[in-house]
Amino acid sequence: MIMPIRNNPGFQDHFDDDADSIMKFLWDFFPAPMMIIRFEEPGNFVVEAVNPTQKAMLSSKKIYAGKHLSYIFPALLCDELIVNCGHCVADGVPVRYEMAGGYIDGEYHQSDCQILLKPISTLQGAITHLLCIVNNPSTYSSSKVAHYSELEIERRVMERTDELTTINQQLSYLATHDWLTEAFNRRHLLELATTEFKRVCRYGLSLGLLMLDIDHFKSINDEKGHAAGDQALQTVARAIRATVRNCDLVGRYGGDEFIIVLPETDLHGARTIAERLRSTLQGAELFISIGLATLERNDQTIDDVINRADHLLLSAKRNGRNRIESASLTLIS
Ligand SMILES: Nc1nc2c(ncn2[C@@H]2O[C@H](COP(=O)(O)OP(=O)(O)OP(=O)(O)O)[C@@H](O)[C@H]2O)c(=O)[nH]1
């Protein structure tokens, strides 16, 4: 909001490239109330921004930006201010005047203060705004201003903490997900699947695992282009997500291969899901082969289940594709 000051040639003459940050610092922390006032037309001035000190002087709960000066100041002060703003715009030079009263901690006080109005012009010389600085000696002893500055620092620390938390969440998402399909990446899938494997073994529960692969995916890439191939992978991932439950684990195992871990799901349930997925994708003219394995008594790790699903997937490919192979039953499309 204080950018217009930067456009003032006078300002740029006196400061180097750090001018913005100096100005921002003064705006935020200088213990004098400041306002940027927008010149709309003669006699019509609107508040564009108030600095934290000014906000504390008035009432930090209200929003002042976009409001006419009369919203902030009582009629007498407002009329005087508007007249002086008018002089400042007409003469194009700073105006300083005394005002008999002002706001401290949201309350009106009869204490003299000085007002400085500085015109802010565009590079073409048109005055569009005024910087208004209030010099009120009582301001500096206001405990509320000091408190407000502390709150401002606290607010910034929290803002920065929130930013870092978001960045951390993004990094952790990138470390665990496949960027193209948003499925879990292979490493994270295996970590989660291992945990699930241990849990279902511990409680004697069932577990289904589907390994699927798009049929003739290479030819989609070769004939329609790599972008079409990417889209096909995204379509498959979306279809999987729409088919399985939230607690199921979906991961991109590599290339065009996906693994779906279905905790507490037996052969019958896993087959229903596999068939639903295959026929959904067939409707979108994408054909997949699926190897379906379930937890067996002698399995030692999740890799044992994955290896069985992998062999069954190979059988599905060998047996003609667009089909599901499972240990006890073969389903043909
Ligand atoms: N567009 C795209 N292609 C990929 C990506 N990752 C791997 N591929 C391609 O996926 C293809 C995998 O093809 P293959 O493993 O030979 O299998 P296929 O053509 O699906 O044949 P079958 O599985 O036997 O039906 C290769 O051409 C890879 O280049 C990716 O992220 N995007």
From TrEMBL:
Source taxonomy: Bacteria, Pseudomonadati, Pseudomonadota, Gammaproteobacteria, Oceanospirillales
Name used for this protein in its record: diguanylate cyclase
Domain of life according to the entry: Bacteria
SMART domains: GGDEF
Cofactor(s) essential for the protein: Mg(2+)
Organism expressing this protein natively: Vreelandella maris
PANTHER family reported for this sequence: DIGUANYLATE CYCLASE DGCM-RELATED (PTHR45138:SF9), REGULATORY COMPONENTS OF SENSORY TRANSDUCTION SYSTEM (PTHR45138)
Residues covered by the GGDEF domain: 205-329
Coiled coil: none
EC number from the UniProt entry: 2.7.7.65
Reactions accelerated catalytically: 2 GTP = 3',3'-c-di-GMP + 2 diphosphate
